Please model this.
Amino acid sequence: MPRSTKATPPQPAAGSLALLIGTRKGAFILRSDRARRAWKLSDPMFLGHIVHHMVLDPRDRHTMLMAASTGHLGPTMFRSTDAGKTWKESAAPPAFPKVPEGEKGRTVNHTFWLTPCHANEPNAWYAGTSPQGLFRSNDGGVTWEPFSYINDDPQYREWMGTVQDGTPDGPKLHSIIVDPRDPRHLYFAMSGGGVHESVDGGKTFTPLLQGLDVVQGFDQATPTFHDPHCVRLCPSNPDRLYQQNHCGIYRLDRPSNQWVRIGKNMPKQVGDIGFPMVVHPRDAGRAWVFPMDGSTVWPRVSPGGKPVAYVTKNAGKSWVRMDKGFPRANAWWTVKRQAMTADAHHPVGLYLGTTQGEIWAGRNEGATWTCIAKHLPEIYSVEAAALGR
Amino acid sequence: MTAHIPSALRSYTAQQGEVQAEGATLAAVLTDLDRRFPGLRFRIITEQDTIRQHMRIFVNGAQVAHLAVPVRPHDQIHIVCALSGG
Model:
């Protein structure tokens, strides 16, 4: 079970901030001034590549990894050691093992998720792929190897289901989380396939599903039927996780294994369906969601055409509407699970990217929203990066 | 033999559209190409040694479906992106 030792309280970030933006047609970096008021957009990087995720290594604040593919070519990974000025391709991107003749092996369609490993494991990274696979690099993303046993385990393969059990863009392994107190304590999530935990560095994983709803008529105890959209751990209290799920918003306080559906406290006309989940860097009681219409055929756009973020300041007991600055009507936005994030500055800034190609910044923890970039390609991911000097 | 490289892969070949490679089978040619231009093969061939869904390979104008196809020193190999996209 998770240790209850205290995490080092995170301090507010200072200095240069950049938003790392992955889109369906390339990557961009949006750099701010110190006040986070003026923003400058880079030229496109790898124009035409599908960039699912671009992440800065917080341990050196210079290394970046970018998970990329194209419509035709196989997946790859690009790596920068100078904060995005120059890039080099990984020598061995994530790939499943070759199976013997006559057997049907899996192939990585794309790497979907990147997570730096523990602060005490420099140069080590985890990656989650589509179809669901878990990989690790120990050399800063130059080479990748399958990690843990789950990629080939018959039980896990059954829980992963088929392509038809995943998202329309392919089933995904995502939300890879490392406990900041213990590099052996890991979480990951699969769409579909549920949330899973390891306390032994990946030697074993167990499902973490209690309290999570599934679509009516399906067996709650079967991981295949669970669709966690995004899971986040609170840096200021690593015993607390929040989750935006296909079936609601949840909080989990360890050592309990019971998720609590805090989305039931959202306004009924808005509902508690969406993709991203954002946590406050220093206050485990605060978290944000960006609701999507989850009715009928799952439109996955802002309910009623009115974009809005909701914040809880009391761990989900109540939610506050935050839409000052957003269009008031006829704005049918979709924000994907990796496309909303927070910086670690004071006060916290929020950022989201729409599939229509706009970046919006929520100053003062989302109190007011401003469009800071537009006319980009379809946005897949937005990460706030505190760059080194 | 000569391998014709599509524009999408010329970042690996210093923008050359035609490159030389050696091998007795298509698999060996692709291995040789990857030795000369690291990373090229995985963009065309999966980890299960199959041609990727939206890639096509032709030997002397005839499309091939697997890597065991024998090739000769003067063959022309065309690697192309399938006419699909968006």
